[in-house]
Amino acid sequence: MMATSPELEPSEIKPRRFAVRVMTVEPQAMKLTVSSQGTVMPNTESDLIPEVTGRVVEVSASLVAGGYFAKDDVLLRLDDADYRAVASRARAMVTRAEAEYEHSSYEYERHKELASKQLASRSLMEGARRSYIVAGAVLRDANVALEQANRDLTRTRIVAPFDGVVRNETVDIGQFVQRGDVIAKIYATDYVEVRLPIADRQLAYLALPFSLRRGLLPQEIRPRVTLSADYAGDTYTWEGEIVRTEAEIDKKSRMVHVIARIKNEATAIPLQVGLYVEATIEGVEAEDVIVLPRNALRNGNQVLIVDEDDRLRFRDVEPLRLYRDQVLIKSGLESGERVCISVVQTAFDGMPVQPVSDRPPNAGA
Fold this sequence. Notes:
This protein is an alpha+beta fold and 365 residues long.
């Protein structure tokens, strides 16, 4: 058996190549976005304060917490009996002052005519002139007092300065209120705002001017913003714009706050104050950007490419931005190159691999 056994011939063992997923890259243009979140707050909020003193005799049904009202609605009425009496007395004073002024004017003209004929002394002329001036001043004072009395009478009816909602109220029928007391807090519903925190490094994606000047941003550079929120099991969205940036940077978080404004009158479903919303702010347009999965980036600024011989090569790149599960590459890659997007624990330059094509990630965000 030993003499007739077959002879073994050695054969060369070829190592199996490690399979990796690769993606063929193509530069593309995409619009950058910045995400944030915040709570909806009113654009205009005011304290409802009576300008006169009196007892409350009527309160509108809308003057309750959460009540809606329209501009010029009467929200509260005070007892106006005393103010009507003051206005009546002021009108009587005006009538009296007008009679005195008319008489003094006639006397003054008569003395001027007599003085021209040298039939009246200088003292009589000066006395008539003085009476005429005093009567004019008394008439003007009476008219001012009448205007003041009429304003006070009008102020017994507190009307809504805008369309809005009552946040809270502290008044009821029979209560005596003083001038200057805060009886309610109200806010307008035509516009609402959202205060959005943004990291200062992300402001470059919005192209907002670095300026501490107060005021609204020019209309042509206001970024668009989309707000979304889940409410009662449904998801709602609203469109608005960034109208200004706050002058100060938060000392604790190092965040810059921008203000988004939404016009409720132009939306089918008004945005409610106090709602927590997610915001997506439209940024600048980036040209010739390559989008890769985030795990394709290694050592901070390197990727693995697969060359024509199916070998791994390290390549230095310049990342533009890390966004969620994607990385945007600004430079360092050429169109048509294959980038390894598999996780390779121990990779070395020149390592042979078996590439498997993969579809590029969705860059719509």
